[in-house]
């Protein structure tokens, strides 16, 4: 066990001291929620049982034309490896926070560039699962069990222009603690645009607000609380549904609510 202060560890800086189980061997952990880097997590004052992968799952190994990456490996480490070894298709990890397991689980990315684009398979407690056997799409991958490792097809040619594009896109994101995009984009629409059109850009409740530069970023202005976050999320869903008859779906994961 490790005691983690979520008010500093989570990207949105909300939470308290919580005991988290450290996992260093492959087995069934279905009683636990795996938190990874806690970059898209909003933790309630009554959290479920939490666990995180230990150092045994922080690795990068090349095998022929494939890369095996442990699910606890941080995005920055993967990006540095790809840059050093001139490997394409990992540029999207520029300024993308978190560890590989969480990124695969939510099929993280930007626009048409997604982590699952070049995935071959993932390893869980049930063995290897091929990509073609995984149901996935925009910001989700339906993978049963805990992700311990992922396998990617490699190709040569790290793209520095693509790297710069991702950097610029992410530099435009608000510079406050947040859990990234609050809501998924509805089909043929944009959550940020809908939130802006119902007057929520810059809208505040206590110390939680929708950014005045990007309406779909729920930000913590200093001492934001879980209750304030839940209230402002509820207000957003209500306003958008009343005006557009669209039920926004959360991209942030709320644990224990």
Describe the structure.
The chain is an alpha+beta fold and 257 residues long. It folds into three domains: 2-54; 56-165, Uridine Diphospho-n-acetylenolpyruvylglucosamine Reductase, domain 3; 175-255, Uridine Diphospho-n-acetylenolpyruvylglucosamine Reductase, domain 1 (Alpha-Beta Complex). Helix content is 23%, strand content 27%. It contains six helices and 19 strands. It has helices spanning 6-9, 75-84, 100-105, 160-171, 191-197, 226-244; strands at 2-5, 17-23, 33-34, 41-43, 50-53, 60-63, 66-70, 109-110, 113-114, 119-124, 127-130, 135-137, 140-142, 149-153, 178-181, 204-205, 208-210, 217-220, 253-255. The chain has a five-stranded antiparallel beta sheet. Strands 1-2-5-3 form a four-stranded mixed beta sheet. A four-stranded antiparallel beta sheet has the order 15-18-17-16. Strand 12 and strand 13 (140-142) form a beta hairpin. The chain is globular and about 55 Å long. The two termini are 23 Å apart.
